[in-house]
Design brief:
By secondary structure, the chain is an alpha/beta fold. It has 2 domains: 1-57, no CATH class; 82-295, Protocatechuate 3,4-Dioxygenase, subunit A (Sandwich). Helices cover 25% and strands 18% of the residues. The chain contains 6 helices and 12 strands. It has helices at residues 13-28, 35-55, 59-75, 82-89, 92-100, 209-216, and strands spanning 138-147, 157-161, 181-185, 191-197, 202-203, 222-223, 226-232, 239-245, 264-265, 267-270, 286-290, 293-295. Strands 1, 4, 10, 11 and 12 form a 5-stranded mixed β-sheet that branches. A 5-stranded mixed β-sheet has the order 3-2-7-8-9, with no helix packed on it. Helix 1 runs antiparallel to helix 2. The two termini are 35 Å apart. Bound molecules: fe (ii) ion. Residues 114, 116, 226, 228 line the site of fe (ii) ion (FE2).
């Protein structure tokens, strides 16, 4: 490692040289027509320069940072998005959610969207099976969609998606399967129910530069077990969230910092032979969970058509590792 050059004395010529660069860069943005862009770039370079000076970044380290970004770009494709992963493991994704989704009364909390959502998942009727063949312990999920005054919301659209018990989403297999995802609508009384599979932990893709970073920092790539929801209804703010599994030992160390206590649910185990709520014949154990969803009213600036407001990070993260 090359020598770290110590910080200059306050008021010294060297300090002036270092801070002068920032002044020049800020000045270079002076004529930016878009005020918001000007603000964002000004703040970005201010923090970047402060970071470089704070750690006394060496030339070698900067070169390695550039090489890291180069590798992230090289591995990114139509089916792999390393920069979203990087954002996730640095907590930037979750912080952006926190900034943009402050608590709205009793409304259900949001969490990270993740990379495995797929548009136009199959529709299932109430009580249908979203697993569609995905492996795992069958799990019966029920709840009611309500507004913040407790009134049921009929016809809310619920998109649900999850990994199988090998820890893979359908899009991570290269055979084009569609499993572990569907959409359904809440009933007249706002209620919903469907079969899925018991969520299990899975690693985020770690065979690229982000994986190298996790290894170098002795961090785990594992995500706490979860089931994804995106819930929309006219007049309400879109909710993107997950539910987690109480007792999962990964709750405290989720690789992308997505866990919120209010989203941790009891998944009740029903031993083999226990009757199912809808008479479905299941040979072994099945589980059940309840999740009541409260949607906040739409706000100015929210998309009018909730279905058009899907988040942008909908790129399948990677192919299944061999
Ligand atoms: Fe996920």
């Amino acid at each position: 490692m090359s020598r770290i050059v110590p910080a200059p004395e306050p008021g010294s010529e060297q300090e002036r040289r270092e801070t002068q660069v920032l002044d020049e860069v800020i000045a270079s943005f002076e004529n930016t027509p878009d005020e918001r862009l000007k603000q964002v770039m000004g703040s970005l370079v201010t923090h970047l320069h402060a970071f470089i000076r704070d750690v006394r970044l060496t030339q070698e380290e900067w070169d390695e940072a550039i090489a890291f970004l180069r590798r992230a770009g090289d591995i990114t494709s139509g089916s792999r998005q390393e920069f979203i992963l990087l954002s996730d493991v640095l907590g930037a994704s979750m912080l952006t959610v926190a900034v943009n989704e402050p608590a709205r009364g009793d409304a259900t909390e949001a969490t990270v969207f993740g990379p495995f959502f797929v548009e136009e998942a199959p529709r299932v009727e109430l009580g249908g099976d979203i697993a569609q063949g995905a492996s795992g312990i069958p799990a019966w999920v029920t709840g009611t969609v309500k507004d913040t005054d407790g009134n049921p919301i009929a016809g809310a659209r619920l998109e649900v998606w999850e990994a199988d018990d090998d820890g893979f989403y359908d899009v991570q297999y290269d055979d084009g399967r569609t499993e572990g995802r569907a959409h359904l609508s809440s009933g007249e009384d706002g209620s919903f129910r469907f079969w899925g599979v018991q969520p299990t932990p899975y690693p985020i893709p770690y065979d690229g530069p982000v994986g190298d970073l996790l290894r170098a920092t002795e961090r785990s790539p594992m995500r706490a077990s979860h089931l994804h929801f995106m819930v929309t209804a006219p007049g309400f703010r879109r909710l993107v969230t997950h539910i987690f599994v109480r007792g999962d030992e990964l709750l405290a160390s989720d690789a992308v910092f997505g866990v919120k206590e209010s989203l941790v649910k009891d998944w009740v185990e029903h031993p083999a032979g226990t009757a199912t709520p809808d008479g479905r014949e299941i040979e072994g154990q099945w589980n059940s969970a309840e999740f009541d969803i409260i949607l906040a009213p739409a706000e100015e600036g929210d998309a009018e058509d909730p279905s058009s407001a899907a988040p942008t990070s909908q790129v399948p993260q990677h192919s299944r590792p061999e």
